[in-house]
Amino acid sequence: SSRSSKTFKPKKNIPEGSHQYELLKHAEATLGSGNLRQAVMLPEGEDLNEWIAVNTVDFFNQINMLYGTITEFCTEASCPVMSAGPRYEYHWADGTNIKKPIKCSAPKYIDYLMTWVQDQLDDETLFPSKIGVPFPKNFMSVAKTILKRLFRVYAHIYHQHFDSVMQLQEEAHLNTSFKHFIFFVQEFNLIDRRELAPLQELIEKLGSKDR
């Protein structure tokens, strides 16, 4: 359908040969070792902002792909509100185009969210891809907002579409991606605990397996 291709954002590529590309390769190599707690740690001598930037782009791409596999199940009819279980409902505002939070369907919300994230990632003043270009002073708060919002897509998939994920045999992929994401945001304290509440039990389960 046309909608799924619209929500499915093009992959954000990190330029080959750049330092960020090297960092991404490092991240992928350490991920392969299977020790996710170690994989998320800041590599020695690296800039924290740059490490967070590279991983944020990577999580955007992963979530984009994961959501892309279930868009046909996430429709205006099946998901008239953006929720993560009965107790959590999200309304969309980006502070610029939509200042007052609006209630919208999950596919609409996720489309707004992914488009908004993509615009942030494409903004060279926020996410500089050239070496030596400094990160802006507000980089950390921008990254935290992006990650907080990306978490909501995981939360929606787990609460509303896990059956579809299992039918597609994507659950191992989803769980690994989410575990990586959670260990990363925990390592650098990037998402407020309250925001993680919709998946708290799962987060505790993932963490306890790894102790």
From TrEMBL:
Stored SMART domains: Mob1_phocein
Lineage: superkingdom: Eukaryota
Keywords in alphabetical order: Metal-binding, Zinc
Organism of derivation: Diceros bicornis minor (South-central black rhinoceros)
InterPro entries assigned: MOB_kinase_act_fam, MOB_kinase_act_sf
Name of protein: MOB kinase activator 1A
Binding site for Zn(2+): 74, 79, 156, 161
Keyword Metal-binding found: yes
PANTHER family: MPS ONE BINDER KINASE ACTIVATOR-LIKE MOB
Pfam families registered for this protein in UniProt: Mob1_phocein
